[in-house]
Structure formats: structure tokens, C-alpha cells
Amino acid sequence: MGEVKEQATGSKMSIATIVVMNITAVVSLRFLPSEAEYGLGAIFYYAFAAVVFLIPMALVAAELATTYPEKGGVFRWVSEAFGPRWGFLAMAMLWIEVIPYFPTVLTFGAVSIAFVDPHIGMAESIAANKWYITGFVLIVYWMSVFIALRGVGIFARVSKWCGIVGTIIPAAVVVILGFAYLFFSGKPPLIELSWGALMPDFTNFSNVVLAASIFLAYAGMEMNAVHVKDMDNPTKKYPIAISIASLGTVAIFLLSTLGIAFIVPKQDINLTQSLLLAYDLLFRWINAEWLGSVLAVMLAFGVLGGVVTWIAGPNTGMLAVAKAGYLPRWFQKTNRFGMGSRLMLVQAVVVTILSITFVVMPSVQAAFQILSQLTVILYLVMYLLMFASGIRLRVTQPARPRPYRVPGMYLWATLGFLGSLLAFTLSFVPPGQISVGSPESYVMYLVVLVAIFIAIPLIIFALRKPEWRDPSSDFEPFTWEKEQAQNQAGAQSSASAPTQP
């Protein structure tokens, strides 16, 4: 986990570091164009997803992380509630879903770098080239893997500063200039500004389907809970950090989306390029076109920080699964920085293979969309288990000390579960705005891949061997394992006690 290294040096994560890491993990500016298409209606989608998903996720994760601060994250939470089979599945979904996530988020980075070229026509041509996209994805991804392998101390700093430079500052720029354009350009905004525009067009079902991707935009707030023990006084500081990160996430998404919608025509919105086009238009308005190249590089740094965070977090959790004895000992190998090197490398190989999707799909946009939806579906399986665990653990372990106790846990966890279930269902429907080839093939591709990825961890769990458990493992036992050990010790003590004559 890198924890040994951190403690040895006396280095601990601050609230600010966790906040920025969470914002970096959650906020990807690549989501903005897909929501900017809805104009003021995006406010409804962001608010709805925040109420039924982001807030429940942040609250439930904060209680679970502080109640069970031992290693394991979502694996421990779900295992405590439903047993290790389902805990393994939940953690496997988190580990697997980042595999299709990496190509999509790195596509945004590739497009950003293409727009360093001041000639927009040339930049757009480069950004649509599948071979360029694939090459960029693989090079930057493997570079991120090597950074993550260096341990918590390195990847936390990279994530923090890349997040500030590549996510927070660019978001502030598009917000400030977008709203300045609205009020001072003298030109009419390209979206309708009325109370009626706040309500989206629900008669067009395909609009609702693409908007469901906003759930993925908010996903990830629980991921850095695996680092809760890398903080001083985590039971107090972690809930504060996750609350600040949640508010910052909503503000960045909402205001940045409107900044784009004010200036980019709806018909010109492109999932992979519109953010860069918005910057170009805004910088031309203030006669500072050269800033477009600077922002393009900064956005690429933001992608790097996000990828490093998403490599480290899930692999830290999966390493806990391995050390608990549910993966062969080969996967339990750590490097000198305490990172699960073999798990990371296996994941990297799969990402490399999957990235070839960019070459065989009809377009970069089509590959971007289908991989994004696959990521949403797999991630939501984990969230369904997490929300259900929050409810069950309140029932089965009521006496467990809860340093942070969510007020209205049953309400928030139920709301999160139903919201996740809604997004899960909608994610299988092809969006009407994007050419993804045959709709039937699109759905079949998703169904087959989801079935395969869910079956793999269940099969591995069924085939587990007793020798996979390393007696010297530092994975702390589950509650029921401690109780079993105490009961066995009590039975042995009773059996060895001398009988009274």
C-alpha cells in the first residue's frame, strides 16, 4: 500500500492533499462538452445526480472509511456486510472499470496536445487520427504506471500538482472567461436563458441516456478512502476533506459546463474536442490566442494526474484482496515502495490490448462513448454493493464504533442505490447523438463485456486455494474472523480447564 514507506518517513497526507486528489480523481473536464449540449438543462442533470448519487456516495463512503479504517477500502466494507465473495466482486469491479476508463480519459489528453497546434483545422485533423490517439494513450499510460509504482509519496504529489495545474486552473479559466463573455461581449449567448430552459427535454429519450454519463463524472469520491490511514486523525479530517471535495466537484462541473455552452454552438459540440474549441474562441475574444497552446498542455497534465491517481487507488485496494488470500501469492508481490507491482503490470497489459479498440471502432468518438459506458456500468455494480453494505452494516453491526455517523444513513444509501440502478439501466441504451455503428452490436458488445468482467472475479473466488493465504500477511482480519478466533480460543480454554470433582 505504500503505507510502510510513508510512515517510515513521517510523511502524512493533509486535508488539502486528499481534497485535491479527490477532485483530480473525480473531475475530468472531458465530461463538460457532453453536458454543455443541454444548455441550462445541464443544471438539472448536475443537481439531480448530486442529490441521488454524489452526496449519498460521499456520506456513505465517509462513514464506512472511518468505521473500517483498516486496509481494503470497498473490499472490506462489502465483505463485512455480505462476505468476501461479494467484497471481492466489488473491488474487482473498481479495478476492472478503470481499464476502459484509461483509454477514454487519455483520449482527452491526446486531443489536448493536438490543440497545441495554433492551426485549428490541423489540430482537429490530428485529434481525429486513430493511430495518433492510440499511440498517445499507450505512451502516457505506461509513464503513469511507472510513476504510481514509485509509491504514495510520489504519486500523491504528482496527483496534487497535476490536479491544480491541469484541472482546477483550466476550469477556473473557462468559468471566468465564459461568464465574462456572457456579460461583456455584447453578443447573445448560444443557449436559451430562461426559467423554462432549466428543464431538459425528457421527450427525447436518447438525450436522457447520454446525460446518464454524468453519474460517471461524479464517480470516484470513495476511491481514495484506501488512503484513510495515511492521514493524521483520519476520523475527523477525512469527512472534512470529502465534503470540501464534493462541493468543489459540483461547482467545477456546473460552472465550467455553462462557460462552454455560452460560446460553442450546440451543433458543433464534439465529445472530444469542444472544450479545446471553447478555449480557442475565448482566447480569440480577449486577443490572446497564444494561451490556447498553454491551456492545451495544462489539460494534458491534468489527465496525467488523474490517471496516476486511478492507477494507484484501485490497485492498492486489489492488493488488499490479494493479501487477504483471495488471489494467488504471485499477485501479492510488492516492490520496495509497497506497491502491488504485478497487479499494476497485469492491468497495464490489459489496457494496452483494449486500447486497440480505437483502431477498429467507426470513429474516435464512437470508441470514446462505448468505453465510457462500459466504465459506467462496471463502476455502478460496485456502487450498488457499496450502498447496500452501508444499510446492512447498520443492521448487523449496530454496536460498531462509528467516529463519523451519517445522519439518515438508510435514506441516503437507498437514494444512492436507486440512483445507481437507474444509471446502470440507462447505460445500455445507445445514445442518439453519436454514431456507434449498429445499435444492436453496441448493446451486445456492452452486455458480453459486462458479463465477462463480472464472471471473472466470481470464478477466481470459487477456485481459490487455502495456500493463497500468506500467514505473514499484514491484512487485518474481518470482524467475523476475529469473533471466530475468539470463540475458538474460548472453547479451547474451556476444554483445557480442569474439571471439578
Write the layout of secondary structure elements.
Blueprint: H1 3-9, H2 15-26, H3 32-36, H4 41-67, H5 74-82, H6 84-114, H7 120-127, H8 130-148, H9 152-184, H10 205-211, H11 214-218, H12 234-261, H13 274-285, H14 291-326, H15 341-354, H16 357-360, H17 364-396, H18 409-426, H19 439-462, H20 479-496
Helix pairs in contact: 2-9, 2-12, 2-14, 4-12, 4-17, 4-18, 5-6, 5-17, 6-7, 6-8, 6-14, 6-15, 6-17, 6-19, 8-14, 8-15, 9-12, 9-13, 9-14, 13-14, 17-18, 17-19
Describe this structure in words.
This protein is mostly helical. It has one domain (3-481): Amino acid/polyamine transporter I. It is built from 20 helices and no strands. α6 (84-114) packs across α15 (341-354), α6 runs antiparallel to α17 and α8 (130-148) packs antiparallel against α15 (341-354). The chain is globular, with a radius of gyration of 23 Å. Residues 1-10 have low confidence and may be disordered. This is Putative glutamate/gamma-aminobutyrate antiporter. InterPro entries: AA/rel_permease1 (IPR002293), APC_superfamily (IPR050367), Glu/GABA_antiporter_put (IPR022520). It is a multi-pass membrane protein. GO terms for molecular function: transmembrane transporter activity. Pfam families: AA_permease_2.
